[in-house]
Design brief:
7-stranded mixed beta barrel, 6-stranded antiparallel β-sheet, elongated, disordered C terminus
């Protein structure tokens, strides 16, 4: 382990091991978990020659630093940040070959929230239910990184592919999230639905891997009775008693008792994972068969 591992020099605010998650266990009360910004995670793995489901490190806001105990190819993607090797600048968004003994320091995010660090061979944490992902809600998977911890690296998969350019979707000044209304949109008044689609919301500081919380106007309820717990899906837009929508991310609970006014399709969740507190949020309604049009919703026609 000592010659095929890395030691944590600086763990950062929250650095976890993530892959593509443990799908298929919601009936056991286990959420999928996995990388919140999947495109960034997949890209980091491709840059170092790994399959896309290899485990990476996901940092939060403040980055992390590790000391390699073997030579390895590494790549840093996701939220842009300063990258240094033994104090010298190194490339972000490109494969970098590092000798044993060097310290890789992934700095604080310049834009966005979460940065991904891939190592050739992947992080070789012990799988739980088929995944190496850390789930902060259930506690499954490896513990979040702590200073001094030592983690194994897997066997490299092969030579690093040639890279001409790296696609990068910049951090947007406004988070626009399409929403398919339902299944509990009828628990809200027409005015409440207009608030959802026309209200000015912002990303709240209280968010985490479980969900993105919003600040802004409250959605007016049409019903005040209790809702029995029911299944929750990735991207569910749940409305707690304060009326401010909460967008469920990868570590969300699998059941819940607050009404879900709509669901944000999965391809848009990576942008939500990179939205810093204070970012304006706008919800754009999408139609499903039998739903009234967005214009009718805004007009309050049911």
């Amino acid at each position: 382990m000592t010659d095929s591992a890395f030691a944590v020099v600086r763990a950062g605010a929250l650095t976890t091991v993530q892959d593509l998650g443990r799908a298929g266990h919601a009936h056991l009360g286990v959420p999928r978990s996995g990388a919140l910004d999947e495109p960034a995670h997949r890209l980091a793995n491709r840059l170092v020659g790994n399959p896309e489901d290899a485990a990476t490190l996901e940092t939060t806001l403040t980055g992390c630093a590790v000391r390699l105990r073997r030579a390895a190819t590494v790549a840093v993607t996701g939220a842009p940040c300063a990258v240094t090797v033994d104090g010298r600048p190194a490339a972000w968004g490109a494969p970098v070959r590092l000798p044993a003994g060097t310290v890789l320091d992934v700095g604080a995010a310049i834009h966005g929230v979460r940065t991904y660090v891939a190592f050739g061979g992947g992080v070789d944490a012990e799988p739980v239910l088929g995944s190496r992902s850390t789930d902060v809600l259930s506690g499954l998977g490896p513990a979040p990184l702590a200073d001094g911890a030592v983690l194994r690296l897997g066997v490299p998969y092969g030579p690093t592919p040639a890279v001409d350019w790296v696609p990068y979707v910049g951090i947007v000044p406004e988070l626009v999230l399409p929403v398919v209304l339902g299944p509990r949109d009828d628990w809200f008044t027409a005015a409440g639905l207009r608030t959802l689609t026309a209200g000015r919301f912002r990303v709240a500081a209280a968010g985490n891997r479980i969900g993105l919380r919003t600040e802004g106007p409250a959605l007016e309820r049409a019903r005040e009775d209790e809702l029995p717990s029911e299944g929750m899906v990735l991207g569910a837009l749940q409305v707690p008693p304060d009326g401010r929508p909460v967008l469920f991310l990868a570590d969300h609970p699998t059941t819940g008792g607050y009404p879900v006014v709509g669901v944000v399709p999965e391809p848009y969740l990576a942008a939500a994972a990179q939205a810093v507190p204070g970012t304006p949020v706008r919800f754009a309604p999408l139609r499903r068969p039998g739903q009234p049009s967005a214009s009718r919703v805004r007009a309050g026609v049911r």
